[in-house]
Amino acid sequence: MAEIRNQKETCKWLITTLFPRKVHLYYIYQFGDHDPSGVLIPQTIKRRLNEFCEKFDCPAPLFERVALTEEQIEEFNLPTRPTKREGNKHANKFEGDSVELDAPPACTLRDMVRARS
Structurally, how many domains does the chain consist of? Predict the structure, then answer.
């Protein structure tokens, strides 16, 4: 899969890859950092996909943020870092420290993927 750099590219990739196949039921599993932007990305993707589906009368995907969640950070005792707040407009509403997606062991992330297959 090609590297996806931002939300617009993510939606564009999903639309051009999935929708032409006329799939009736599909799932999108999102993995991302637990930081001010990372927790907003799934909401934005889901909103944009729903808008697209309404516009083109297609079924909306079943969307799930798989990782990282606050529960997983606690469960796996993941290392945190101070949240970058300066110059980050999303940080005002974000509480606590941040965690990178690469903090859990790779086998843990693979298990999360397999659990959804």
Answer: 1
